[in-house]
Design goal:
11% strand; 7 helices; 270 residues; alpha/beta; NAD(P)H dehydrogenase (quinone) activity; Flavodoxin_fold; NAD(P)H_dehydrogenase_qn
Amino acid sequence: MNVFLIHAHPEPKSLNGSLKDLAVETLTGLGHAVQVSDLYAMNWKAVADADDFPNRAHPDHLNYAYESKHAFLGGTQRDDIAAEQAKLLWADAVILQFPLWWYSMPAIMKGWFERVYAYGFAYGVGEHAGERYGDRFGEGNLLGRRALVSMTVGGRESHYTPRGVNGALDDVLWPIQHGMLFYPGMAVLEPFVVYQANRITPEQWADIADRYRARLRGLFTDAPIPFRRQNGGHYDGRQVLKDGLGGGETGTRIHLVQPGDPPEYPLPPR
């Protein structure tokens, strides 16, 4: 299988760098092919701006979404953007490796998504009418791929619980896991998280490495997070969860399929 690993940390000798190297070693040892985009090492351009479009449809006024669609459909994207899209299409699984900075990913990785996820490639896909409103949240051009967030956190695990001061980790990661990965169709696995990352001892690292190897061995077999598909029948024509669903949960967790829910509609043929 093919695995695409996107890595964002400025220090190669960091814990994130070690996790990235461990993933490559483990996955290749299991017989998988691996490509890595080390964003800092690549000096990735993180800012989405007019320089992304050498052949503008409307030179006098920048509409980034429109220009990204024009470039994607017209074959005039910058080479760095097109190369990352090709890696996504090549992949059977995608791994994000990053430290949690200010409740999100580093800006360089956020910029990767803003530039690589072109209109027509990752969003704006499919018919937008009635209940469908596009092929998104469980459908889209990246359907059939798996995704895993592997990240380090400075705080304690207890800080990221429903009653913890930072809020539940599911909610902190909602924009990434549901919004960036599930939106274009990827099946998202439970995240791999290392807490109190700046206090890891050699003995703790040995345990972390063992746990991460186990997660990587299950990359293609572990059950994904049961996010509801937008077009699976659980949402109405306004894309609002139908009455009677989600009653056993609160917050973002209402958007997880629960025992006793009606089955979702089959995916349409591609």
